[in-house]
Amino acid sequence: MLRYFVVSSRAKEVGRSVSEYEGVSGFSSTVVSLVVSIEWFDGPLTLEQKHRLLDEHVQWYRLYGMPMHSVPASWEDFLEYWDRMCRTVLEDNKATRDVLDLSNLDRPPFLRWFPEGVWKLIRPPVTAGFLWLTVGLYDPSVRELLGYRWSRPEAALHALVGRVIGLGTKLVPWRYRYHPRARAGWDRAFGRIPADTGLLETPGRNLPPLDRRDSPMHYSPKVTDRHRPTSVSP
After folding, report:
1. Residue 21's CB: how many other CB atoms inside 10 A?
2. Contact of 208 with 197, CB cutoff 8 Å
3. So where are the chain's domains?
4. Which residues does 33 contact at the CB level (< 8 Å), separation at least 6?
5. Residue 207's pLDDT is what?
6. Is the model more confident about 64 or about 40?
7. Hey, which of 97, 163, 167, 227 has its CA 20 to 30 A from 13?
8. Does the pLDDT of residue 127 top 50, yes or no?
9. Residue 78, exposed/middle/buried by CB under 10 A (0-12, 13-18, 19+)?
10. Which residues, 6+ apart, have CB-to-CB distance to 86 below 8 Å?
11. pLDDT averaged over the chain?
C-alpha cells in the first residue's frame, strides 16, 4: 500500500528528498506485506525470523541492481524507517483513495458465470468486507491518516478471521498453495520435471479481462482461459 501514497510535500517538510523514499518504497512495502500476511494467517514471527526475512529481501533487492544506500541495515533500523514513513511522510491522496474505491469491482474470474445483475446487488457488502480486511492490516498511524476508526472488538474479530483463513489453507495440499509458475519451480528443484523445462505462463484465469489484455500495464501472455500447466505433474 505504501507505493500508492505520494511522497512529496511532507517528505520535504522533514528534510528528505522524494527520490530517497521512492527508492526503497517497493522494497519496504514487500517486506511489511509479507510479515503482516504471515502473522495474520499463521501467528507471530520470532525476532530471528524477521531478521532473516529482511536479510533475504536485501539479498534479492541487490540482485536487481537497485541502489542500496537507503536500505535499512537491520530489522530494528527497518522498523524505525517504516514508522517514520507512516507517521511523517505518507500522504492521503487520490491514488490512495482510488485503490480503496471498489465500487466498480468486477466479478472475479471464477464467477464469470454469475449473473451480472445479481453481482451488482451483492457487490456492496462484498467490497465492504474486502475494505475492512484491508484496513485492518494497516498500521494504526495509517488508519488514522485515512480517517478510519478501529476498535478492540474489530481488531479481535479481524485477527480471528485471519487465523480461520490460515487454518483453512492448511487443508489445501502443499503444492497447490502456490501459483502454477512457482509450483513448476518447486517441481524443477525436486526433480518432478526436467531442470531445463521452460517457464510456465500463468493460466488464463489469472489474466485481466479480454478487453484489457493489450494494455502495456498488464502482464498478458498468450494463453487461453482454459490453459492448464501441462508440464507439471499433479
Report:
1. 23
2. no
3. 2-89, 94-174
4. 1
5. 82
6. 40
7. 97
8. yes
9. buried
10. 139, 141, 142, 145
11. 84
Is it the case that residue 192 has pLDDT exceeding 80? yes
- Who contacts 37 (Cβ-Cβ below 8 Å, separation ≥6)? 137
Decide if pLDDT at 3 tops 80. no
Contacts of 55 (CB under 8 A, 6+ apart): none
Q: Mean pLDDT across the stretch 34-47?
A: 94
Closest residue by Cα to residue 29 from 48, 4, 6, 49:
4
C-alpha cell at position 120:
451488482
Q: Which long-range contacts (CB under 8 A, 24 or more apart) does 22-28 make?
A: 23/66, 23/67, 23/70, 24/70, 24/71, 24/72, 24/81, 27/57, 27/61, 27/66, 27/71, 28/2, 28/78, 28/81, 28/82, 28/85
Residue 71 confidence (pLDDT) above 50: yes
79: confidence class by pLDDT, cuts 50, 70, 90: very high
Q: Is 27 exposed, middle or buried (0-12, 13-18, 19+ CB in 10 A)?
A: buried
What is d(CA 17, CA 11) in angstroms, rounded to the nearest whole number? Answer: 6
**Any residues with CB less than 8 A from the CB of 44 and at least 6 apart, and which?**
none
Instruction: Please compute the mean of the pLDDT values over residues 112-134 and round it to a whole number.
Output: 92
